Amino acid sequence: HLEVTMDRFLGPHAERLYTLLRVVAGLLFACHGAQKLFGALGGQAMTSNPMMLVAGIIEFGGGLLIALGFLTSWAAFLASGQMAVAYFMVHAKGGFWPIINKGELAVVYCFLFLYIAARGAGPYSVDAAMRKR
Q1: Distance of alpha carbon 25 from alpha carbon 20, whole angstroms
Q2: How far apart are CA 7 and CA 11, in angstroms?
Q3: CA–CA separation, 72 and 128 (whole Å)
Q4: Which contacts qualify for 6-12: CB closer than 8 Å, 24 or more apart?
Q5: Burial class (CB in 10 A: 0-12, 13-18, 19+), 1
Q6: 69 touches 86 (CB < 8 A)
Q7: How many C-beta atoms surround the C-beta of residue 95 within 10 A?
Q8: Of 131, 133, 130, 119, whose CA–CA distance to 19 is shortest?
Q9: What Rg do the C-alpha atoms of the chain give, in angstroms?
């Protein structure tokens, strides 16, 4: 009964809530890229390391594309793959469990972006606006 009540309460707002999820996740992901590329937000620029440079570009550019809802599925798929690579190259060395190897964020981003890649940008996006034309 509680499930039905919550569905009736939040269900009509599902598209707006999905947009909020996409925008917030994309902007937060872009912040990781800004740290790597520009040394912003308490980070250190890592552009001399080719792997970190590529990661920063994917995070910053992909995060902004996801937040805007432009080329969303492609950007999210690339971001998902980058997070899988980051998990196995960096975190998995520290043990099997993400809670122990400090890889929870990489795992969550990986699967969140995989979902966004499959679902697309939604109606409140640049992609949707371009389709209407």
Answers
A1: 8
A2: 5
A3: 10
A4: none
A5: exposed
A6: no
A7: 12
A8: 119
A9: 16
Encoded tokens for 32: 């990781």
In DSSP notation, the chain reads -HHHHHHHHHGGGHHHHHHHHHHHHHHHHHHHHHHHHH--TT----TTSHHHHHHHHHHHHHHHHHHHTSSHHHHHHHHHHHHHHHIIIIIGGG-S-HHHHT-HHHHHHHHHHHHHHHH-S-SSSHHHHHHH-
Q: How many CB atoms neighbour CB 62 within 10 A?
A: 25
* Tens-digit pLDDT string for the chain (133 aa): 667 787 888 899 999 999 999 999 999 999 999 999 999 999 999 999 999 999 999 999 999 999 999 999 999 999 999 999 999 999 999 999 999 999 999 999 999 999 999 999 999 999 999 999 8
54, 60 Cβ separation under 8 angstroms: no
| CB-CB contact of 52 with 101 (8 Å) | no
